[in-house]
Amino acid sequence: MDKKSAVIEKQARLQEVEALLKAPAAAPLAPLPREVLVPEARQQTPAVRQRATRPDGRLHGLGQTKYIDDYYLPGMLYAKIKRAGIASARILRIDTSEALKMPGVMAVITGKDVPCNSFGPSLKDQPVLADERVFHAGDGVAAVAAVTEQIAAEALEKITVEYEPIRPVLDPLESLQLETPGLHAPNPNIYGHKVIRKGDVEKGFAQSYRIFEGSYRTQMVEHVPLEPHASVATWDANGRVTIYSTLGRITLGRADISRTIGVPMSRVRVIATVVGGNFGGKNEITTEPVLALLAKKTGRPVKCTFTRPEEFLASTTRHPLVMDYKTGVTKEGKILARQIRLVLDGGAYCSWSETTLGKACILSAGPYQIDNLYAEAFVVYTNKTMTGAMRGFGAPQVCFAYESQMDDMAKALGIDPLQIRLTNALREGSLSPTSQKLHSVVVRETLLQAAQRFGWNEDGGGNGAQS
Amino acid sequence: MKRRGRGIACMWYPIGFTVAANPSAAVVKINEDGTATLLTGTVETGQGSLTILAQIVAEELGVATEDVHVVSADTDTTPMDTGAIASRTTYVTGNAARLAAEKAKEILFEVAAPVLGVKADQLEVSDHKIQVKGFPQRNIHIGDIAERARGVNGQPPIGSASFNPATVALDPETGQGKPFATYVYATQIAEVDVDDETGEVEVLRIAASHDCGTPINPMLVEGQVEGGISMGVGFALEEEMLFDGEGRLRNPNLTNYIMPTSLDMPKVEVDIVDSYDPTGPFGAKGVGEPTCVATAAAICNAIHDAVGVRITSLPATAEKVWAALQAKRAQEPRQLAAGA
Q1: Could B176 and A198 be called an inter-chain contact, meaning their C-beta atoms sit closer than 8 Å?
Q2: CB–CB contact A56 B50 (8 Å)
Q3: pTM of the predicted protein model
Q4: φ and ψ of B234, to 5 deg
Q5: Chain B contact for A100 (CB, 8 A cutoff)
Q6: Alpha helical stretches, state H, B266-313
Q7: Active centre residues of B (catalytic)
Q8: CB of A230 within 8 Å of any CB in chain B?
């Protein structure tokens, strides 16, 4: 670079600096961007049918949502629950003395410390902490409150429980055969039974062109919410307990907590903050009474958050079903009669089994007009994780059965799967299996719309074509 | 070799409890500026129900969703609610919230009637205004009336109401009766690829057509359908709690209990069918649970379409599909190769 151009460059830079020095302190007003003033969906009227965003969405997105596990109250202790680890047994002795000696352990309780050690939405067959009998491996037998989670977990190892094992019953069909009183005395083994009878199935089968029979089974699954069950209990000096909990049903929860800990409802406050997924799994109390009792005993707030294994072992799950279907149809695929037997594996405790039993039984016919129907459903105890409310209450199970059979019938009769469903679908004013006159029925509309969206009638899809 | 199949499944599902009473109560307080607060005992469990309830109250009061703040899930401050269960929040709690808003609105109408020189029953709400039916130019801002209700009439606009679905008990012998107030319907069609050598199933796409009555918030309905389908895919293909002979759970963890991740999600195409239920709030029913009902059946029908095996027990794991394919091949008459 020669001297001359260097001078020119230097001068240019000086001019730039000078211009900057002369510039006003505040930037000049830029012309406003042209905005189209359309309010957000949240700000529009009418409000219904708007794709309004959720006010909690911003908090979730920014990581600012406070879940129960984020709560810390001054002086708070951490609770852990000792799980039985054996599916069926009589409890002979629980020794908590070694755990109590551990530094940092503030309290240990067992079922004997629970004022009313039973709860449940219909049958009150579930203990807060098992004290005489273990009905499944996830039963809690003792609870520890300690200054850290780790000390509480270590203290569980120091608790010794002596069991007299009893042969577990694991298969629902075996449980169905067991005589009363069965494994869960004094309750009968079959603790729920439902029948739906409409028309005359024998007559319907007699008139049928063909009869199809099928047996179907479904498995036990967990809700797996991202946020595990968690709660914090804290008492005030007036003898009022406040429980922050991941409950989806605070009204029932308060009633159960009040009853089990023996405190009037007016002295129990339940606050369910933001719940990080429920799917039916957080519809009843789990550790809340235990925490309330530990907090009372220690005079300090107590928190417990389930581990992931505890979600599987100690919360409710979906009922496995054994389903037998017998269906009589005409040559054109019209269903004339259907006979159904459902056996629900209820697990160790009743929980929401009665509701599941009812819904499964009523829905088992499918969204079809069937004049002759006989559906019978049983729910039985087994020594497995209890089953309860889970998204669908028996409906995903029976839908798997009735829709599998529907396709088998269509194939055998040479009818398109869409057509056989349209032939049988409920219509406006149809009578349900319980002879309820149905309104705003749109089965056919959903069938046709889904078929159109999918391109059902277009060639080239499916039928085992190489892809 | 991968083989393609498609399967259809439809379903019906009720809203609310089976016969048993499952009421919800709600309180709506209209503030002095025309915004409102809803008190409800239901719990937001991630599904967006509080937004739906805010939209219902806003619609009834003629204001925007953002103008309604929802206080929920505190037994000390919020009224009784049966809770976030049985796909009942939009229908049952929604009806209670709408009725509570209607009662609060009636107080506003009483205050506004002499101001606008008409009877209270000649008034309606629209876009933050109380106006005379048929004469929308004769109107007054809802905030002005709410302030007047407090400051002049001494009548704060607060409404409370409850709702319980109408049912008839089932006959114990025959099960006949009216267990639910209303039902929703849906169809899902799945497209899958099945590897006929390994039994592995990949769900490619699902067309889901759902009825929820009036979609109070179509975006949240779509969210429910997509979430329900993810649960349905897990139920169909992967998830299973396995017990040993002693009744101990063998896979109580997410390493051995396999559930779908976002990578396993098929393409989901959601349609909301035209539907209106006169018994629901603004014609709405519900959508929560039904979204996961038909998925497994549709996928298993698609597997059958692809490779001709009927899976009769869930989940349809690769091992199970492979075993069924082996069994099917064993039964098929062996064909001699050409020229042999």
Answers
A1: yes
A2: yes
A3: 0.94
A4: -65, -45
A5: no
A6: 295-307
A7: 289
A8: no
**Sign for the pseudo-dihedral over CA of A175, A179, A180, A182:** negative
What is the 8-class DSSP label of residue A43?
A: G
A428 interfacial to chain B (CB closer than 8 Å): no
Task: Indicate if ipTM > 0.90.
Answer: yes
- Rounded to the nearest angstrom, the minimum Cα separation between A41 and chain B is 8
Nearest CA-CA partner of B52 in B289, B288, B291: B288
Enumerate domains of chain A plus CATH numbers: 69-165 (3.90.1170.50), 172-221+317-454 (3.30.365.10), 230-313 (3.30.365.10)
Q: How far apart are CA A115 and CA A264, in angstroms?
A: 13
Distance CA B53, CA B38 (A): 8
pLDDT in tens, A122-165: 899 999 999 999 999 999 999 999 999 999 999 999 999 999 99
Confidence of residue A467 (pLDDT cuts 50, 70, 90): confident
Of the candidates A43, A308, A442, which has its C-beta nearest B211's C-beta? A442
Question: pLDDT, tens digit, for every residue of A177-222?
Answer: 887 557 787 778 999 999 999 999 999 999 999 999 999 999 999 9
Calculate how close chain A gets to B110, using CA atoms only, in Å: 23
DSSP strand E in chain B: where? 2-15, 24-30, 36-40, 68-72, 123-126, 129-132, 135-141, 158-163, 182-195, 201-210, 267-272
Joined tokens for residue A281: 């799994």
Sequence-ordered list of residues with C-beta below 8 angstroms from that of B327, at least 6 positions apart, any chain:
B309
User: Residue A70 phi/psi, 5° resolution?
Assistant: -80, -10
The residues, ordered by sequence, that sit 6+ positions from A159 with a Cβ below 8 Å of its Cβ are A82, A94, A95, A96, A98, A99, A108, A141, A142, A144
Cβ pair A138:B66 closer than 8 A: no
Task: List the beta bridge partners of residue A341.
Answer: A324, A376
**All domains in chain B, ordered by first residue:** 2-14+180-331 (3.30.365.10), 19-163 (3.30.365.10)
Q: How far apart are CA A120 and CA A134, in angstroms?
A: 16
Question: A336 and A205 in contact (C-beta within 8 Å)?
Answer: yes
